[in-house]
Write a structure and sequence with these properties.
Strand content: 15-25%
Strand order of the largest sheet: 3-2-1-4-5-6
Radius of gyration: 32 Å
């Protein structure tokens, strides 16, 4: 079973069943095929000459019927191509008969070898659509060097904002997939004039998303060419941040470490206050997730009964419960012990809510956190959990200082030896989404009540991981999209789930109206949860409240609902907005 999960990992992570080695990926396919054909054309004449020479010697020595070299070569060619044997069809000496049989089988093998391995791929490649090595002149675009999970969601946001994207991709398979999907992509090695081909002088920003070494080279080339725009680098190793900044990067990000921090915060209530920067919304508001303890006075009450807004000043916009985000947060929403509230407010407001959600009783501590995978994400999760006073049990393929059990987290026998029954939660931080999916299934089978928190690479796989049983799943693509879009677009938005996005928009078109007059939920499906005005954050709107020029308006809902809000209310006629 594990074999098939390994074999099928590409279906979730890459869309194919195998991955070429790095050296082969760097060599263009047409060059490889031409080399194959060259070897074929050199080998066939040599093979005919060898077989013909042996046949000439054998006929003269064993059969006593000498043949000329030309006759022998003709026999060898006819036999190897399976077209016939001319006048020679029978041999009296056993050695000659065995030799003829051998050559016949070699000929049949060559026929089956040449066509599928050499000629058909060559013809397919020859007539296949050529990948573009250049594009028409573009301007005010964002250049992305190398496609990957950290930039996937960002590109959707850029396109939605009307910003053009040009992808420079050196990997042929990936470039072809992007090209067939309709992306603007150029395929060429990074060292071959990428700066000029991508019209970098006319670009608004460059995003370097390849290896750390290649990132540094691309950034240096861009700066040396005179590019003065934003250069954002996504690095794998935090120690490389400073060298890449010295190379000319405007900002350097490590999305996997931010994802590790977010996963750790989801696992332990003790870490929740320390990662608020990831969900920052402007200077006054942030979106935070707060776990409700059994001893909290909120546990078991409805949102109306708890009166969270009046007690803390924070606005609850949803609740995570058993892997499902319950939105919208209506007055009848019951706050469950163990659930995680999603709330918006100032840092002081959220701190009040945290104290209320924790309660006055001692924190029950039961068992360790099982962490599957100790790579970049898993090691960050372990570090934060230990720093907050939690105990961990780490499973990884390679031994290490923090690794308690060495082995494959997809092996049922191995997981059975882990302390799952007494664990507080399991954090699955494996490299591929398919491995994460399968590990989640195994964990839920072995310990059905164990909460599973999963790291996901590609945001489109979030739903699959949830269906596999994960209580929470976070995507590195969404985490990086939030920080990058904030830098590139000035967008202040947090998307925790397809059903929940909080965005900061302007007040254009709303000036002079009270939120109740606009019938926001009925018309768009989202809610206005806060207003930023003159250094003050407002979450309650008295009857005399009216929107003013310069207000920052925070709206909450699905991505589609937020888009409808912008189109329906911000861009429509005032006569159509107000309630009669």
């Amino acid at each position: 079973m594990v074999f098939w999960v390994r074999l099928g990992s590409g279906l979730l992570d890459r869309g194919c069943l195998w991955e070429r080695s790095p050296n082969r990926a760097k060599m263009p396919a047409m060059v490889r095929l031409k080399r194959r054909l060259l070897w074929l054309f050199l080998t066939l004449p040599a093979l005919v000459l060898l077989m013909g020479g042996l046949y000439m010697v054998g006929m003269g020595t064993l059969e006593k019927e000498p043949r000329t070299l030309l006759e022998s070569l003709q026999w060898a060619a006819e036999t190897l191509t399976t077209t016939g044997y001319g006048l020679d069809g029978r041999w009296s000496h056993p050695a000659m008969a065995l030799f003829a049989i051998l050559v016949q089988f070699v000929g049949v093998f060559l026929v089956f070898l040449v066509f599928p391995i050499y000629l058909i791929p060559f013809l397919e490649e020859r007539f296949e659509t050529r990948l573009p090595r250049a594009v028409p002149a573009v301007k005010d675009h964002v250049v992305v060097v190398s496609w990957g999970a950290p930039v996937a969601s960002l590109l959707e946001r850029l396109r939605h904002a009307g910003v053009g994207v040009l992808i420079v991709e050196a990997r042929e398979v990936e470039a072809r997939r992007l090209y067939e999907r309709g992306e603007t992509v150029i395929h060429r090695p990074l060292e071959e004039g990428v700066v000029e081909a991508a019209f970098l002088s006319e670009a608004r920003a460059l995003i370097a998303n390849t290896t750390d070494e290649e990132n540094a080279a691309v950034i240096l080339a861009a700066r040396q060419s005179g590019f003065r725009g934003e250069i954002l680098a996504i690095v794998e190793e935090p120690l490389h941040r400073r060298p890449i900044v010295l190379a000319g990067a405007s900002e350097v990000y490590t999305p996997r470490h931010m994802l590790g921090a977010a996963l750790a915060a989801r696992a332990s209530w003790r870490i929740s206050p320390s990662v608020s920067g990831l969900h920052s919304l402007g200077d006054l508001f942030s979106l935070r997730e707060v776990r409700i303890r059994e001893t909290s006075p909120l546990a078991g009450k409805t949102l109306k009964e708890a009166d969270v807004g009046a007690q803390t000043g924070a606005i609850v916009v949803g609740q995570w419960l058993q892997g499902e985000l319950m939105v919208p947060a209506t007055s009848s929403l019951r706050l469950e012990a163990g659930g995680i509230l999603v709330a918006i407010g100032s840092d002081d407001n959220i701190d009040h809510l945290v104290r209320l959600a924790v309660g006055s009783g001692p924190q029950p501590h039961r068992g360790r956190f099982v962490v599957c995978g100790h790579g970049e994400v898993g090691s960050k999760v372990t570090e934060l959990l230990k720093a907050s006073g939690e105990e961990t049990f780490v499973i990884d393929l390679a031994p290490g200082a923090d690794v308690d059990l060495v082995g494959d987290a997809l092996e049922v026998e191995l997981l059975e030896s882990a302390p799952l029954e007494d664990a507080q939660a399991a954090v699955v931080a494996l490299d591929s989404d398919s491995a994460t999916l399968f590990a989640t299934v195994i964990l839920k089978d072995l310990a059905p009540n164990l909460p599973v928190i999963a790291r996901v690479n590609r945001s489109e796989n979030l739903d699959r991981i949830h269906r596999a049983g994960a209580e929470f799943a976070l995507s590195v693509s969404e985490v990086s999209a939030q920080v990058l879009s904030r830098r590139l677009l000035g967008e202040q938005a947090v998307a925790l789930d397809p059903g929940l996005k909080v965005s900061r928009v302007g007040s254009r078109g709303l000036v002079g109206y009270h939120p109740a007059q606009l019938r926001v939920r009925q018309r768009t499906g989202c809610s206005i949860v806060g207003v930023e005005r003159g250094g003050t954050g407002l979450v309650n709107f008295p009857e005399d409240f009216r929107f003013e020029e310069g207000d920052g308006v925070f709206v909450c809902g699905s991505s589609e609902a937020v888009d409808r809000f912008v189109e329906t209310l911000l861009h429509s006629s005032p006569r159509l907005r107000a309630t009669p």
